[in-house]
Predict the structure of MutS-like protein.
Amino acid sequence: MIFSIDKQTLEELNLTGKFRTGSVYALFNKVKTNSGERLLDQMFRHPLIEASAINERSSIFQYFEKAGYAFPFDPQQLTQMREYVDAAGAGSAALVLAQTFMKKILSGLTRDERYRKSIQGLQATIGVLQRCHHFIDTIQPPFVYEAKVDQIRKILADKKIQRLREMDIYQSLPLKTLAYYEHLLKTELNAGMAAVLAFIDELDVYIAVSGVSKSKGFSYAQALASEKNMLQAENLRHPCIDKAIGNKLQMDRQSNVLFLTGANMAGKSTLMKSIGIGLYLAHMGFPVAADQMQFSVRQGLYSSINVSDNIGLGYSHFYAEVVRVKQAAEAAASGKRLLLMFDELFKGTNVKDAFDGTLAITRSFADYTDCLFIVSTHIIEVGEALKDKRNIRFAFMPTIMEGAIPRYTYRLKEGITEDRQGMMIIRNEGILEMMED
């Protein structure tokens, strides 16, 4: 089973994308190697759905954050080693010796670079193995990572590899030695070298991500069984916003629907994005922008925050919203344990229809107690009509008026807002006066 998330949710939360401005992926992409970057991308695309696996990975990140290691490898050496050991095997030892001899002859007669690259590849491999052996000797891994470290330690303890890593890379390598190890590393020892390189990719990600966590003051969430159906966090904030305001969040089976009100610009959308991003990162075992967080494992995440019309399909803005809500309803009815978030339901239609639609949909969602829902609106009358539903918690993002100027605290408060500053903001912008001139 995989964690379900669609393209729209990924884009609304700005989770993935190396070159997307302000993406969560870009925030954590401090790796040193291309292969480490590929592993980071894989982790972002495949969140975990088992509580034990999530907690194990987060414990490894916590270890590396506490240890404060710097990445101990030369990225150029790693690239040369990878190219060297990944090259196709050349057959028997005798054939490799003959080919190596021929490459040396050609290197002296022509500009053939293969012999020089073989020497550089072996030298790089020796250098990487030496650094890896030194690092393994210094690391004291947590229990959940001991098996991986022991595997690499055993590979490096192989007598043939031990002789190789004890060689001086600054001395001339005899042709026979070059041919011997080229054959060995691409045949008998190839699986071991692949394991070492995979281990180094993991180190790259663990060190990079934990370094971001330490610099940003993040923490690690605790994953709980999905049946508990809860999400709790202290000082939860958006990880990509400097000096972001944090909020306390508490959702459980008795209050699995958070009905969020507040004026436009009060921070409802940012809060919802913060919750979605936090939950997604938590399922990856990654650090989250919160002081503390616990969550029941979800099977997926679904949002409707920035729905737009679809000219290609002939959808109006309102119909696109309806289609999105239908997709969410189907997901919830499938029996999966999900987090579903809706920002300003049915804003593409008139106020009466928006009121009726938001009320009906929120009531229906509240019946799916195995899921968690967040619904926001600025139609505060809907909240009053929902007060008979005991599993709906009401909260709002307040607006404080300082004279005629609104100030937004971005702090979540219990209840339903009474803020109605829309016309005041319009007057502040001088729109009516412009139209009268």
Observations:
- Residues 75-213 form one domain.
- Confidence is low (pLDDT under 50) at residues 309-314, 423-427.
- The longest strand covers residues 231-236.
